[in-house]
Specification:
The structure holds 2 protein chains of 2 kinds. Chain A is of the alpha/beta class. Chain A contains 8 helices and 12 strands. Classes of the chains: A alpha/beta, B alpha+beta. At the A-B interface, helix 1, helix 4, strand 5 and helix 5 of A face helix 3, helix 5 and helix 6 of B.
């Protein structure tokens, strides 16, 4: 899952990047409104955390421009302006959630998870696919109730496939959603990680759809 | 006319002036007229005295003769007009007869009392003047002069006196005084009526201004409009400038408060996040102190916002549109709970106050209801038939926010709302929401209380001033 953080305070930005990376997200950071708007307009993010008081371009304007150009990713506004008039203005501009500063990082992470889940059409915090189960709260994957040991990159890939299970996901989409902007994107890397995952879960759960991508589905389902 | 009003002051001043000046003017006029009448009487008497002497001297050698110039006043008995020539030395006349007094027929043989007999001293023309009681108890003005008639041995001094009736002049003066009093009283009443009209007409623009200010207070107008007289036009301009500057100050204060919030809360967020990753005593102390600072920042930001609000007048807010936009926002924030929101608000209910304040109060109530509700949240707005102790110009309206959550116990319901007191610790929140609602409601002289909702959850009731 790929997250964009647009926050001009360098310390807070660093803390957010660190907390979200630790939680298994691929994180890009922007420090002003123009940079944030450009990234959000050109890269496919799963969630954006957007400060409102930004240099160069106000956060609300950034959000309005994204929505005008049909960018539909979930946006969580993170701001010190906690009056209801600010919240209403933010939500009316197209935000999906609102977090007031100072905030608990765990609460923000929960809101990010909720937005990711909601965007992929899941109502509950546990996402299941056959014997596989992802607890989005703890970022743990279990197979038949037993925890699977995954590296950070394996987790990101499996979590994305679980969020979009039963759907064909292209290699390009995976690359775009699993790696930060600066990452050296080599689609062969995806194949390497798919191969590793197949060794940790029932191998026929991840199917390669030739020319299209991959699909995670319940074991034995030929779909 | 109200007590302690400009109109009353102007009227009382004018009335006092009329009541003091008119009697004084009457007294001065009356004194002038009296002086004129008495001077004319004296002139007539002294002229008559001269005529009497001239006529009596026709045969000067033989002594005075009775003058006769056919004036009926001196012929009619006790007419009030008399003359008398009375010898003083007791010499006989030329023909040897003793010189007796000569009198006008009007005296009918009575003796005319003389000023010299009263010891009155003569004036520079040698005439003695006195007001004396004459025949038939008439008060008469008597002029007396000592004149010598006859020649040679018969020459002797005579007291020549002429009297004119004074009571007639006094009667005339009394009649004149009565008429003057009536005329002045009529003038006084007329002046008071004119003053009353003048005060009403003159002060009419002020009452127009009062209506204009009431319209601003109720939100019907943004500034003092209308053509006003040149004397109060500067006041109108100053008031409009004051209103504008007041609004600008409030807006500026709000911006500063917002900027301050941003400037303080971001570093606090950084400090707290950093410290929460550590479990050392220093980190715990930082968390504790940063939490205290956050609470203090929130408390003083709220106070600053409320202080910026004091004196703001003339704002009116549609309750329905605020409730709709808040419900829309909360529906998105709590979309996972799939709550059913309902709103029942008559279109004509308007809050007499700031939109931001209504949003803050209703937003906090709806947020709390959404947090606890199982499946539905309802908002009912209604104009209140019963007035509160403090009378708002347009009355009051009530907002009821109900949820179907667990609600509060009877004990919790009866506790007063305190800043930072959280009624339930199991859901996130600072506990400031309800105290902000209570503080804001208090700012508007309104009321905020909890009760049990029909659906079993919490019912928060907010009473606020209704705009006309």
């Amino acid at each position: 899952m790929r997250v964009l953080i647009v926050e001009d305070d360098r310390d807070l930005n660093r803390q957010l990047v660190s907390a979200l990376t630790d939680a298994g997200y691929a994180v890009d950071a922007a420090f002003d409104g123009e940079e944030g708007w450009h990234l959000g307009d050109t890269e496919p993010y799963d969630v954006v955390i957007l400060d409102t008081g930004l240099p160069k371009m106000d956060g609300i304007r950034v959000l309005e421009q994204w929505r005008r150009s049909e960018r539909k990713m979930p946006v969580i506004i993170l701001t010190a302006r906690d009056r209801w008039s600010d919240k209403v203005a933010g939500m009316d501009a197209g935000a999906d959630d609102y977090v007031a500063k100072p905030f608990h990082m765990q609460e923000l992470l929960a809101r990010v998870r909720a937005q990711v889940r909601r965007a992929s059409g899941h109502a509950k915090s546990d996402i299941e696919c056959g014997p596989l189960r992802l607890d989005t709260k703890t970022a743990r994957v279990t197979l038949n109730g037993q925890p699977i040991k995954l590296t950070s990159h394996e987790y990101r890939l499996l979590a994305y496939l679980l969020h979009h299970n039963e759907r064909v996901v292209s290699r390009t989409e995976l690359v775009e959603h699993l790696y930060e902007q600066d990452f050296d994107r080599d689609s062969n890397t995806i194949e390497v990680f798919i191969g590793r995952l197949r060794k940790k879960i029932p191998p026929d759960m991840i199917k390669t759809i030739r020319g299209l991508g991959y699909r995670l589905s319940q074991a034995g389902d030929e779909g | 006319m109200k007590a302690n009003s400009l109109a009353l002051r102007l009227f009382v001043t004018a009335a006092a002036w009329v009541l003091v000046v008119l009697p004084i003017a009457g007294w001065i006029i009356l004194a002038g007229v009296r002086h004129g009448v008495l001077t004319a009487l004296d002139k007539e008497i002294s002229q008559t005295l001269r005529f009497v002497i001239d006529d009596a001297e026709e045969e000067s050698e033989a002594g005075p003769v009775a003058p006769n110039w056919g004036d009926a006043r001196f012929a009619d008995t006790h007419s009030g007009w008399y003359w008398q020539i009375k010898p003083l030395d007791g010499k006989p006349t030329l023909d040897g007869k003793p010189a007796g007094p000569l009198r006008s027929r009007s005296l009918a043989g009575d003796n005319l009392p003389l000023p010299s007999e009263q010891g009155v001293e003569p004036d520079e023309k040698e005439i003695r003047w006195a007001n004396l009681t004459g025949p038939a108890q008439q008060v008469v003005r008597v002029a007396e002069i000592i004149h010598q008639f006859g020649a040679g041995n018969s020459a002797q001094r005579y007291s020549v006196a002429v009297a004119g009736v004074l009571s007639e002049a006094e009667d005339d003066l009394t009649r004149y005084r009565d008429q003057l009093i009536k005329a002045l009283a009529l003038a006084g009443v007329g002046l008071l009526a004119a003053t009353l009209f003048q005060v009403r007409f003159g002060l009419f623009p002020l009452s127009k201004m009062e209506q204009g200010l009431a319209a601003i207070r109720s939100g019907a107008a943004a500034k003092l409009d209308g053509e006003l007289p040149s004397e109060i036009k500067p006041l109108q301009q100053e008031l409009n400038a004051l209103l504008k500057s007041n609004q600008e100050i409030v807006e500026r204060a709000r911006t500063h408060v917002g900027n301050l919030a941003h400037a303080l809360k971001t570093p606090l967020a950084v400090l707290l996040n950093e410290a929460r990753q550590d479990s050392s005593p220093l980190a715990r102390k930082v968390i504790e102190q940063a939490d205290t600072m956050t609470a203090q920042v929130n408390l003083y930001l709220d106070r600053a916002r409320m202080a910026a609000r004091i004196g703001v007048i003339g704002r009116v807010t549609e309750v329905g549109s605020v409730a709709e936009s808040l419900i829309r926002t909360l529906d998105r924030i709590y979309r996972d709970k799939e709550l059913a929101y309902s709103l029942d608000c008559p279109a004509d209910v308007r809050f007499q106050g700031e939109r931001q304040d209504l949003e803050e109060m209703l937003g906090n109530l709806l947020d709390n209801a959404s947090k606890w509700a199982r499946s539905r949240v309802s908002v009912v707005v209604a104009a209140m038939p019963v007035a509160l102790g403090n009378v708002a110009a347009g009355g009051w309206f009530e907002i009821r926010v109900e949820d179907d959550g667990p609600g509060l116990t009877a004990e919790q319901l009866s506790e007063p709302i305190k800043r930072g007191r959280r009624l339930d610790e199991t859901k996130p929140g600072s506990g400031l929401g309800h105290s902000i609602v209570a503080d804001l409601a208090y700012c508007y002289n309104g009321r905020f209380e909890f009760s049990r909702a029909e659906a079993g959850g919490l019912c928060a009731r907010l009473t606020l001033p209704l705009a006309t």
